[in-house]
Design brief:
elongated, single chain, 141 residues, mainly alpha
């Protein structure tokens, strides 16, 4: 398996993050305009201006931010694997499942107000990432 093949899930998650980035702009800018929020008021992420935005717009922005949290561990782990063992088929499958779950997590966060479902998706993502980490630790030892 080539490094390029093994890193395909990394590229896929980066592409998904870019989709969310565009979705963020496509929803937040019109919502801010409709609510007559001056951009200077949005300087601070926790400002009162957010109370004027629809929940779905906030969910898109929150999810975009979440794609810069836990996935950073995924990116680092994937590059560690490539630089040390080169990765194997099972690691590629686990990594691909992780990316798929992150996409589903995004959609659940944006389209559902069910916090238990969202947490369940987050927990599945976490467990998948832990599985990849555990497999990598075992291979490293």
């Amino acid at each position: 398996m080539t490094n390029a093949t093994f890193l395909t899930p990394v590229l896929a998650l980066i592409v998904w993050t870019a989709v969310m980035w565009f979705w963020l702009y496509a929803t937040r800018i019109p919502a801010m305009q409709a609510a007559r929020i001056h951009p200077d008021k949005a300087r601070h992420p926790s400002g009162e201006w957010k109370t004027k935005l629809p929940p779905r717009v906030l969910s898109v922005a929150d999810n975009y931010n979440h794609l810069h949290e836990q996935p950073t561990v995924f990116y680092a782990l994937m590059f560690y694997i490539v630089l040390t063992t080169g990765g194997d088929r099972l690691s590629l499958i686990i990594a691909s499942v992780y990316v798929g779950l992150r996409v589903v997590h995004s959609l659940v966060q944006i389209f559902s107000s069910n916090v238990v479902m969202r947490f369940s998706m987050f927990a599945l993502c976490s467990l998948t990432l832990f599985a990849l980490l555990g497999k990598t630790l075992i291979a490293a030892l």
